[in-house]
Amino acid sequence: MSTSSSSYYPSEVVDPHHHFIDTANNSFQSFLSKFLPNVTYLPKDYTRDIIEPLAKVGVKMIGTVHVEAMPDSGVEEVTWVEQMMTNSCLDDDQQPHYVKGYVASANLTEDTIDQQLQQLVGTTTKLRGIRWIVDCVGKFENGTTATHPATTRHDGIDLLKSPKFERGLALLEKYNLSFDLQCAPVQLVETAAALFAKYPTLKVCIDHLGKPRTILGNDVLDDDGSGSVNPNVTVDETELKVWREGMTAMAKLPNVYVKISMLGYTCPGWIRTKERQEVVKSLVRETIDLFGANRCMVAWNWHMSGAVSDSDGMSDVGPDAVELLDKFCWFFEGYSKEDKDRLFAGNAKEFYRIE
C-alpha cells in the first residue's frame, strides 16, 4: 500500500484552523512574543504556502477559519486580521477574502466575560467561536509535559475544573458561539466529558486529534548524542489508553467534533518513515470510527512552517500543504466520496457556518 499519495483529491477544501502572527510589530501579541519573538506570518505567506500549492493540483480552498494565537486582546487580533484581509483584497482584486470565520480568544474566567463576548461579536459578523487554551497537567515545565505554555497565564491551574470557567462557557450559546477545546487527554477523562455533557447544544470542537503526546517517543535520539532518527515503532499504550478513554467519552456527546491536525505532536517526525505513518493513520481512522465521518474535519494548522505547524516545535520536519493532502487522502482510502467530502470541507462548513 502506498503511503505517499492517492488518486483521489477533493475538488475543494476548507481549512478550519490556521494562524497569522507578527510579534515583531503587534503590541497585542506581547505574551506570544515570549515564545515566538520576531516572528511574522501573514496572509500572503499562507496564500504562498497553502492556497497556491493546493490550487496547482486542482484543489480549491473555499474558506478558512482563523484561530486565535494567544493574543493579549481577542478584539485587537480579530480586527488586525480583518484589516489585513480587506487590504490584501484591495491591493489584488484576484485575491479573495478567504478567511470566512474567526475563533477568537477570550478568558472565560474573567468577571467581564459577558461584555467581552459582546464586544467580540460586534467586531465582525464572522465570529464563530472562542478558544482559550487549557492543556494543563501541572505547572509549565518548558515543554517537557503536556502542559501548554499558554497556561502560564494561570500556571498550574486546570481551568476545566474552575466554576468561573464554566460560568463563561455557559454564555457562549447566548451569542451563537462554539468552543474550540484544546486540552490534554487526561483532562478529557477527568473533566471535559462531564463538563460538556451539561451543555448538549453547545457546539464543541476538539483540537488536534485530542493531543495524544509523543506516542513513539521523540523524533530523534538526543540522549546518545547521535541525532539519529528514533527507530522505535512500539506505541506508548499508557498514553493511548488515557486518550482512548477520553475520546470515547467525548464521542458519546453528539455536539462534539474533532479536528484532524497537528499530527506531529502525536508522533513527531511521522512523515520520516512508513512505520510511523501507519501508526498515525491508524489513530486518525480510530478517531473517525469513534466520532463518525460527519463529526471530523481536516485542518492544516498553518503558521511559520510545515514543521512547526505539524509538531508544535517537537520535530524539525513536517509535510508541506500538498504532502499533507496526500496523507489525508491515504488515511481516507476506502471511505465513500460523501464521507471524504465531509472530512475535507462539509463538516467544517457546517460547524463554523461557512457560506
In words, what does this structure look like?
This protein has 355 residues and is α/β, with parallel strands linked by helices. The protein contains twelve helices and ten strands. The strands form two sheets. It has an eight-stranded parallel β-sheet with strand order 1-4-5-6-7-8-9-10. The protein has a two-stranded antiparallel ribbon with strand order 2-3. Strand 4, helix 3 and strand 5 form a beta-alpha-beta unit. Helix 3 packs parallel to helix 4. It is globular. The N terminus is likely disordered.
Q: Quick summary of this structure?
A:
The protein is an alpha/beta fold and 355 residues long.
Keywords:
globular; 355 residues; eight-stranded parallel sheet; alpha/beta; disordered N terminus; single chain
